[in-house]
Amino acid sequence: MDFLEEPIPGVGTYDDFNTIDWVREKSRDRDRHREITNKSKESTWALIHSVSDAFSGWLLMLLIGLLSGSLAGLIDISAHWMTDLKEGICTGGFWFNHEHCCWNSEHVTFEERDKCPEWNSWSQLIISTDEGAFAYIVNYFMYVLWALLFAFLAVSLVKVFAPYACGSGIPEIKTILSGFIIRGYLGKWTLVIKTITLVLAVSSGLSLGKEGPLVHVACCCGNILCHCFNKYRKNEAKRREVLSAAAAAGVSVAFGAPIGGVLFSLEEVSYYFPLKTLWRSFFAALVAAFTLRSINPFGNSRLVLFYVEFHTPWHLFELVPFILLGIFGGLWGALFIRTNIAWCRKRKTTQLGKYPVIEVLVVTAITAVLAFPNEYTRMSTSELISELFNDCGLLDSSKLCDYENRFNTSKGGELPDRPAGVGVYSAMWQLALTLILKIVITIFTFGMKIPSGLFIPSMAVGAIAGRLLGVGMEQLAYYHQEWTVFNSWCSQGADCITPGLYAMVGAAACLGGVTRMTVSLVVIMFELTGGLEYIVPLMAAAMTSKWVADALGREGIYDAHIRLNGYPFLEAKEEFAHKTLAMDVMKPRRNDPLLTVLTQDSMTVEDVETIISETTYSGFPVVVSRESQRLVGFVLRRDLIISIENARKKQDGVVSTSIIYFTEHSPPLPPYTPPTLKLRNILDLSPFTVTDLTPMEIVVDIFRKLGLRQCLVTHNGRLLGIITKKDVLKHIAQMANQDPDSILFN
User: Fold this and answer.
1) Helix (H) or strand (E) holding 515
2) Positive or negative CA dihedral for 115, 116, 117, 123?
3) What positions does the domain CBS occupy (predicted)?
4) Torsion angle, CA of 225/228/233/239, rounded to 10 degrees?
5) Would you call 496 helix, strand, or coil by DSSP?
6) Helix, strand or coil for residue 174?
7) Can you give the pLDDT at residue 533?
8) Coil, strand or helix: which one is 553?
9) Peptide linkage before 670 cis (omega within 30 of 0)
10) What is the C-alpha end-to-end distance of the chain, expressed in Å?
């Protein structure tokens, strides 16, 4: 009796912290698709089933877009309200944030549009006055208290309910998309806790953003919704196509940049990205952006807080400061990666890692105490970027726009370059202090046990540096118009330099230096600003920052964190340039014990169970006999265990002395012998093999391009050894003079 004619539940699935077999998964999907297509010709019902199967992918994208757009809107609105809660509350309705509270007020003037009787600071509520030193101390104390409360709630929820909800999530998503399995990382608990704690973490005023975690949230939505569709629930490779599209939807709602989201998924996170996934990613990103636009979280019909529109032309000479910003971005990126990885390694290897709650509270307390006195650190980082990107208009009341003779407009209504007033000089000092605080505190914040994104803090660092340089250039052009570099294109009373544009270029440069994104970064920034004419400055800054950062260290922040955590991620961008052979890497080595193999027709159930209990290997080669070592196929440990357990329950007479056959036909048995167990159906009859003299650069390429778990090594058809993905990663680490034991997982 061949009990395997019916599929066994669990066969073909994977254990936690294992790598999927891409080749097997794709093959199974092709078989499933072929079967549905053949059946569709037999009846109308089968045809309907075939059409619904083809349409299910698009329906899934629609649901992912709707869910991630809705959650992003909820996060934006909640974070905006809770950030303002640190400074005061609206008596007209506690659910209004500061801006919405004063919108409804009848006692508000245009110049002081952020002051209205309905909005009360904590000092007004507690001691009934907003003037004097005591009122300042009360507001200061309440600000720090709320920040600590939000941070404590965030880290406690993560620690108790969903440890996987911490951090940015992008390094783990890159690893999962490359075929690794981390059960629970994209589960429903992680989604719920990440959504709640992301709001709390952003509201606490820590130097972090919500953009990276929104990619994790969108991927959780994608993974959970996959369970509604058989096609994606039962196939790990198909599920990863969906997660690639979900990542695009996440960036789409984070920045209001659907095309940038698709390119981000393609350039930064995806491992396998067929054309079909490109279209579906585009659709998911479109639906997500449309959903967020319908919710309108900021009340201004924009998808992000720092959307700007410039139309002032830039001049060729300005490429010099733009490239300088690119160099600054590359230097900051390389410095940040080195220091942050060193700090995270210290956290992992010392007692510090055992006290995540205390660490978060200490960093929050330091951030809040240093942030409150400076208005640019007190406001949320998104508002700060919005202020820095802003080009000064006639009606701006910001200190950054406090120029002298500011209403002396030139023809055309544009404001000319003019001398900086007291407010601008004061703002420059405050921004310089803000820059130092952001640079230092972000190093210690990223990687703590709370949801923390890196996009916004990196952009803030670059935007501050860019605004400082922009104002410097503007004043230089005003006071030294006779210089050759200015007089050819900048006439008296004209608006020559746009400081907001410098902030935007600086933001792109710093983000590029940290993440090493190029194409997707430029498209995201262009979608944010709607300024097609600024693509060249953005490209110049992004490329310069990447070159400078790459010269100082090859890895972006996400790849560095993947390596720090020891995830089995085979980087597709790096070349393998060493002249080693397959026989140098395969197991067993010369002095090692022989390779553990199964024979096709001479082992009993007991023999196989003994091998399983005495080893920890993920699978076993099957050979004709131990003497010949001729290869038949490869069988996975998990499939073996499940099949033997199932046979003992369902097949009469299977005992420890029953012989296991991996052949197509078992020979006739003498009477009174226990029935045999036929397991040919779980045997992979076409395992990938290379010869012992195959160069390792070809082996590495095969592993990358086909997503293999293991590859068998033969010599003249005889089995010699096995190379696993872990062996390849260890060998690459060894060749790069790194610790090969840093690769933790199978």
Assistant:
1) helix 499-515
2) negative
3) 586-650, 682-742
4) -30
5) coil
6) helix
7) 80
8) coil
9) no
10) 35
Torsion angle, alpha carbons of 373, 378, 383, 386, to 10: 30
DSSP state for residue 590 in the 8-state scheme: T
Residue 47, token pair as written in the block: 């045809």
Nearest-CA neighbor of 382 among 248, 532, 203, 233? 203
As a whole number of angstroms, the distance between CA 644 and CA 634 comes to 16
CB 672, CB 37: distance < 8 Å: no
Dist. CA 412–CA 389, nearest whole Å: 22
Secondary structure of residue 219 in the 3-state scheme: helix
Q: Would strands 631-636 and 619-623 be described as parallel, antiparallel, or unpaired? A: antiparallel
- In terms of Cα–Cα distance, which of 526, 459, 509, 521 is closest to 263? 521
Measuring CA to CA, which residue among 643, 595, 659 is closest to residue 622?
A: 595
The verdict on whether omega for the bond into residue 588 sits within 30 degrees of 0, i.e. cis, is yes
Report which of 609, 651, 638, 642 is spatially closest to residue 3, judged by C-alpha positions: 651
Q: Which two tokens stand for residue 319?
A: 């490429």
- SS3 of the chain: helix, strand, coil, percent, to 5: 60, 5, 35
Which of 204-218 are b and which e, b meaning 16 or more Cβ less than 10 Å from the residue's Cβ? bbbbbbbbbbbbbbb
Rounded Cα distance between 208 and 205, Å, is: 8
* Distance from C-alpha of 378 to C-alpha of 147, rounded to nearest angstrom: 11
Q: Could you give the CA distance from residue 200 to residue 147 in angstroms, rounded to a whole number?
A: 9
What does DSSP say about strands 631-636 and 659-661: parallel, antiparallel, or unpaired? unpaired
The letter for the amino acid at 242 is V
Chain CA centroid to CA 429, Å? 34
Residue 189: both structure tokens together: 């608990």
Token pair for 57: 């992918």
Q: Which residue in 667, 672, 681 sits closest to 653, CA to CA?
A: 672
DSSP state for residue 675 in the 8-state scheme: P
Q: Could you tell me which of 15, 14, 19, 169 has the C-alpha nearest to residue 569?
A: 19
219 closest CA partner among 255, 168, 267: 168
Run of H or E residues at 660:
strand 659-661
Write out residues in the chain with pLDDT < 70, as ranges: 1-7, 104-105, 107-114, 305, 393-397, 405-417, 488, 491-495, 741-746
Q: Enter the tokens of residue 397.
A: 């009341």
Tokens of 415: 């404001």
Helices (H), 372-483: 375-378, 381-389, 422-445, 455-479
Return d(Cα 495, Cα 267) in angstroms, integer: 37
Determine contact, residues 241/20, Cβ cutoff 8 Å.
no
Instruction: Name, in order, each residue with C-beta under 8 angstroms of 428's C-beta and a sequence gap of 6 or more.
Output: 468, 471
Residue 247's DSSP bridge partners are none
Domains of the chain: 64-295 (1.10.3080.10), 328-404+415-555 (1.10.3080.10), 582-736 (3.10.580.20)
Q: Which residues contact 30 (CB under 8 A, 6 or more apart)?
A: none
Nearest to 249 by CA among 279, 306, 289, 213: 289
Q: Are the beta carbons of 600 and 662 closer than 8 angstroms?
A: yes
Question: What is the reported pLDDT for 575?
Answer: 79
Supply 125's token pair.
């509520």
Write the Ramachandran bin of 301: left for phi over 0, alpha for psi from -120 to 50, otherwise beta: left
* Residue 187, C-beta contacts closer than 8 angstroms, at least 6 positions apart: 164, 220, 223, 224
- Yes or no: say if 181 and 16 are a contact pair by the CB < 8 Å rule: yes
Cα three-residue angle 332-263-559, rounded to 5 degrees: 45
Residue type, 694: T
Q: Say what the alpha-carbon torsion angle 661, 666, 669, 675 is, to the nearest 10 degrees.
A: 50
Residue 111, pLDDT score = 59
DSSP track, 348-375:
HHSGGGG-HHHHHHHHHHHHHHHHTTSH
